[in-house]
From TrEMBL:
The name this protein goes by in its record: RIB43A-like with coiled-coils protein 1
Compartmental location: Cytoplasm, Cytoskeleton, Flagellum axoneme
The keyword Coiled coil is annotated on this UniProt entry: yes
Subunit (UniProt): Microtubule inner protein component of sperm flagellar doublet microtubules.
PANTHER family per record: RIB43A-LIKE WITH COILED-COILS PROTEIN 1, RIB43A-RELATED
Keywords from the UniProt entry: Cell projection, Cilium, Coiled coil, Cytoplasm, Cytoskeleton, Flagellum
Principal cellular location given in the protein's record: cytoplasm
Record flagged with keyword Coiled coil: yes
Cross-referenced Pfam families: RIB43A
Coiled coil: 227-268
Organism name: Microtus ochrogaster
Length: 396
């Protein structure tokens, strides 16, 4: 019966497992989530149970290293920017110099071209024959008909490349050449005449300038001579005036010196007048720069005053000695009284220490009795290390 019941229970459990599918494998996602929670809990415990991180809050070394890296990166960026700015300024300066040089070169070239045109390509110097110029000497005769269009190619009257007016054209060119040659000769002669006229005018101008310069030099020399004469006369007059002024000044100085000598001889300084040393506003004071010394009466009064002061000083010293003796006696009496008080204080302290010792012994006996009572009756169940290990096992 027991075996049958066991088989029945096994079959029942098997049917339950098949019905509710309890024998399925665990879900990998759920296992991964559980492991992730466990790992997070471990990390949280490490973070919470680490005293340094809990007190300081963050990793200071990592932050400092990040700050240093940032400073280095900013310094490198600033140096790169400065180098770029320097190069940019240098390139700008070079570009400006090149542009300026190119502009100057173009200006010089245009100026040279313009000078060449003005000097070499003037209208009066051209020698070409302009067929369209109505001012020329010769004009080409206008054809009264167009040979090619009039006769046509089949008339055998006009051929391609044929020059029917060669003689007239050569004659006209020769005449034009003679005309141009005559024109050039005339222009050259006119240029020579112009140069001779310019040279003559230049010589006349130079002669006039030299004549004017010589005349101005003579006038300047005469003016300088007149100025020297006038300056010499003025200097002589000024010298005479200066000599007269010096003589008058010397005479006045001599008179002033004589007056000063007389005044000093008859003054209170040399006569040693005692009244001159009296102060005008304070009769008890004297003037130091006029005082010649004290009179015998003044000296006697000073000695009398000094004798009186010596007597007073002597009496004062005797009084001080008697006062010091009295203070000495009082000091001795106070010292004796202090010794007596010190002896009494020592006796009182010894008696107090004896009473305090007996009181402390009694108190120690009472505390020992109380401690024995606590250890033997109250605190019988002492906590072990296992009791303290149950704390701080989770971060929640």
């Amino acid at each position: 019966m027991v075996k049958d019941s066991a088989s029945i229970d096994a079959s029942f459990h098997l049917s339950l497992l098949q019905m509710y599918k309890l024998d399925l494998a665990p879900d990998p996602k759920e296992i991964a989530a559980i492991e992730a929670r466990k790992n997070r809990e471990k990390e949280r415990q490490c973070r919470f149970f680490n005293v340094q991180n809990r007190i300081m809050g963050v990793d200071v070394e990592a932050l400092n290293s990040q700050v240093e890296e940032r400073k280095i990166r900013e310094a490198v960026e600033r140096s790169n920017d400065m180098a770029y700015d320097t190069k940019h300024a240098h390139y700008d300066l070079v570009a400006q110099m090149l542009e300026k040089e190119e502009a100057e070169r173009a200006c010089r070239l245009s100026k040279r071209v313009q000078d060449f045109r003005e000097q070499r390509q003037q209208l009066k110097n051209e020698h070409e024959f302009d067929f369209c110029d109505p001012n020329q000497l010769y004009e080409l005769p206008a054809s009264y008909y167009d040979r090619e269009s009039y006769f046509g190619p089949a008339s055998m009257q006009y051929f391609l490349g044929e020059d029917l007016e060669r003689e007239s054209r050569l004659k006209m060119q020769q005449e034009q050449f003679r005309y141009n040659l005559d024109q050039q000769l005339q222009e050259q002669q006119a240029a020579r005449d112009e140069e001779a006229r310019a040279a003559l005018l230049s010589d006349q101008l130079r002669l006039a300038v030299d004549t004017r310069a010589a005349e101005l030099a003579r006038l300047e020399e005469s003016c300088k001579a007149a100025m020297r004469t006038a300056m010499a006369n003025a200097n002589k007059a000024q010298a005479a005036k200066q000599a007269l002024l010096q003589r008058l000044e010397q005479q006045q100085q001599q008179e002033a010196n004589l007056t000063e000598i007389k005044k000093q001889i008859t003054s209170d300084l040399l006569t040693e007048n005692p009244q001159a040393a009296q102060h005008p506003h304070a009769p008890h004071r004297v003037l130091p720069y006029c005082w010649k010394g004290m009179t015998p009466e003044q000296r006697a009064a000073i000695r009398k005053t000094q004798e009186i002061q010596r007597q007073e000083k002597k009496e004062q010293r005797q009084a001080e000695k008697s006062m010091e003796a009295e203070w000495g006696r009082q000091t001795i009496n106070l010292a004796e009284a202090a010794l007596e008080l010190e002896e009494q204080e020592k006796e009182l302290c010894a008696e107090f220490r004896r009473g305090l010792g007996s009181f402390n012994q009694e108190l120690a006996r009472e505390q020992q009795t109380q401690q024995n009572y606590l250890n033997s009756i109250i605190y019988t169940n002492q906590p072990t290390a296992q009791y303290f290990l149950q704390f701080n096992t989770t971060s929640r």
